[in-house]
UniProtKB/TrEMBL annotation:
Gene3D superfamilies: endopeptidase domain like (from Nostoc punctiforme) (3.90.1720.10). This is Peptidase C51 domain-containing protein. Residues 199-209 have a biased composition (Polar residues). InterPro entries: CHAP_dom (IPR007921), Papain-like_cys_pep_sf (IPR038765). It holds the Pfam family CHAP. SUPFAM superfamilies: Cysteine proteinases (SSF54001). Residues 106-183 form the Peptidase C51 domain.
Length: 234
């Protein structure tokens, strides 16, 4: 678990608070005090992000989507694409290439844009959202939201912020699942205990693409996770 960090002020001109719109899961997000939007606050190493309006912006892709991989390969393909961006840093006022390609804007809180971009680059049509809630909703709609079961590489993982009243704060990609061996009924089996996560708008200064190692699956900040690949029709 990374140490708690204090986040700097950020440009709120692009933010439009919406507690009932499609960016929130079934309108369940609590009302927010606009006064806190410009104040630094403490969280668990991730950025305050995705409180602007809208859950599925139109994309302005500058590259052709690749054909999706087959079967379980799609998850690893998403991870490989995301890992190649590790160390990327944003410019002034949250400017970044992921927001630019997915929305046409120069910059905004972009953790969800990064996840959407990785899915697009892997050949998927969804999720496509600039909000944490939008991504969760889209995975629920396509039937691939798992809550907190069966984590797999390439799954989108959503977090809240325990130190604030925000119900959704950050979204990233599970890059690795870590297991331990336990004995049950005389049989040894491997069970998942933690995950590595790669995400955008994150890290010490919340300004780049970074990896967080061994996030315990019982971490109270985890909302849940879901596969970004749609299940095959039988």
């Amino acid at each position: 678990m990374s140490n708690s960090v204090s986040f700097p002020k950020f440009n709120t001109n692009i933010l439009s608070l919406n507690t009932t719109g499609p960016g929130f899961i079934n309108g369940s997000g609590p009302k927010q005090d606009p006064a806190v939007m410009t104040k630094p606050y403490i969280t668990t190493g991730f950025s305050m992000a995705d409180i602007f309006e809208g859950s599925a912006p139109k994309t302005t892709s500058t590259s052709k989507a690749k054909p999706p991989a087959s079967g379980s390969d799609i998850g690893q393909k998403i991870v490989d694409i995301a890992n190649k961006q590790a160390g990327y840093k944003e410019g002034a006022n949250n400017s970044n290439k992921f927001t630019k390609e997915m929305t046409g804007k120069s910059g905004q809180a972009w953790c969800a844009d990064f996840v959407s971009w990785a899915a697009k680059e892997a050949g998927l049509k969804s999720p496509r959202s600039s909000t944490v809630g939008g991504i969760v909703n889209q995975l629920k709609e396509q039937g691939t939201w798992k809550n907190k079961k069966n984590p797999q590489p390439g799954d989108a993982i959503a977090f809240n912020s325990p130190s604030t009243s925000r119900w959704d704060d950050h979204v990233g990609i599970i890059s690795k699942v870590n297991y331990k061996t336990v004995e049950k009924n005389g049989k040894k089996t491997k069970v998942p205990v933690s995950v590595d996560v790669i995400s955008g708008n994150s890290g010490k200064n919340t300004d780049g693409v970074s990896t967080r190692k061994k996030v315990p699956l019982n971490d109270p900040s985890i909302i849940g996770w879901g596969s970004m690949a749609k299940p095959k029709k039988k």
